[in-house]
């Protein structure tokens, strides 16, 4: 009996609008949440707040502020996945809400447990009243995958109280110029850093099943400002000696030479 063929999506660079990007990425994360948590759950932990594959921990970074100052703060985590960061925030006495586009990712949050709300929603249309939160955070959530990041940033600003802080991490823009490979083959520039054409994986009929959007560093800064935030820091974590893990194109080899993550610290005045 002939085995059914396994479809491999075609990788390409092409335009992808807000609707297509959201639909594709919701489906991708629902289909791949189980594998993602198996592959990366140990590194992420159940209740750690890690900003990216380098392993920068909020315990040390304090980008949201000192841990003791988080007690009693209303915090929105965007693109929460299994809500590891929200669980850490709750342990500090904060009142987190974990939001994700993927229902399956939030099912993993339920599996691990926690007493905070889980919300399945699009970051571009946050289902919260104005000025609902003191802080917001996103560790590789939403912003790399949306066609209009300013729309998301404006929504986050809307739900923050005056003086509130939003900290988000994304793939460092320089990485788009290099192949997504952890070894030596990933050290040579293969594409233009200035090419903003989205990376799209599509099926046989040309429908997107995964989309990621590229913004340069300057684009990200302009997006933050256009949304009404004040940028107070841009953190580029260095690869620590203790971290021997590979994660996609992230690795000790590459991490010691080029940045893999950019973290934007923004304030709503």
TrEMBL record:
| The UniProt record lists the keyword Ribosomal protein | no
GO biological-process terms attached to the record: methylation
Q: Give the Gene3D superfamilies listed for this entry.
A: Vaccinia Virus protein VP39
Which sequence ranges are marked TM in the entry? Answer: none
Swiss-Prot/TrEMBL keywords: Methyltransferase, Transferase
Q: Molecular function terms in GO for this entry?
A: S-adenosylmethionine-dependent methyltransferase activity
Record-annotated Methyltransferase type domain positions: 76-168
Q: Which Pfam families match?
A: Methyltransf_11
Which CDD domains does the UniProt record give? AdoMet_MTases
- Superkingdom, according to UniProt? Bacteria
**Which PANTHER family does the UniProt entry name for this protein?**
METHYLTRANSFERASE (PTHR42912), N6-ADENOSINE-METHYLTRANSFERASE TMT1A (PTHR42912:SF93)
- Name the record gives this protein: Class I SAM-dependent methyltransferase
């Amino acid at each position: 009996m002939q085995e059914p063929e396994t479809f491999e999506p075609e990788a390409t660079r092409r335009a992808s609008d807000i609707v297509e990007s959201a639909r594709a990425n919701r489906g991708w994360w629902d289909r791949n949440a189980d594998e993602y948590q198996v592959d990366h759950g140990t590194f992420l932990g159940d209740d750690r707040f890690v900003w990216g594959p380098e392993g920068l921990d909020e315990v040390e970074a304090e980008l949201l502020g000192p841990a003791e100052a988080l007690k009693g703060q209303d915090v929105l985590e965007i693109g929460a996945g299994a809500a590891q960061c929200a669980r850490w925030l709750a342990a500090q006495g904060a009142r987190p809400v974990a939001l994700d586009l993927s229902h399956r990712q939030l099912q993993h949050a339920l599996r691990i447990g926690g007493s905070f709300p889980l919300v399945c929603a699009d970051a571009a249309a946050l289902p919260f009243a104005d000025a609902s939160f003191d802080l917001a955070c996103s560790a590789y959530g939403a912003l790399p995958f949306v066609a209009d990041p300013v729309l998301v940033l404006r929504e986050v600003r809307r739900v923050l109280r005056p003086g509130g802080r939003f900290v988000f991490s994304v793939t460092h823009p320089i990485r788009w110029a290099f192949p997504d490979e952890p070894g030596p083959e990933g050290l040579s520039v293969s594409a233009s850093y200035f090419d903003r054409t989205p990376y799209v994986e599509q099926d046989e009929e040309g429908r997107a099943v995964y989309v990621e959007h590229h913004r340069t560093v300057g684009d990200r800064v302009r997006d933050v400002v256009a949304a009404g935030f004040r940028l107070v820091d841009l953190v580029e974590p260095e690869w620590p000696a203790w971290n021997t893990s590979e994660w996609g194109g992230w690795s000790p080899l590459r991490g010691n030479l080029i940045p893999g993550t950019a973290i934007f610290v923004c304030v709503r005045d």
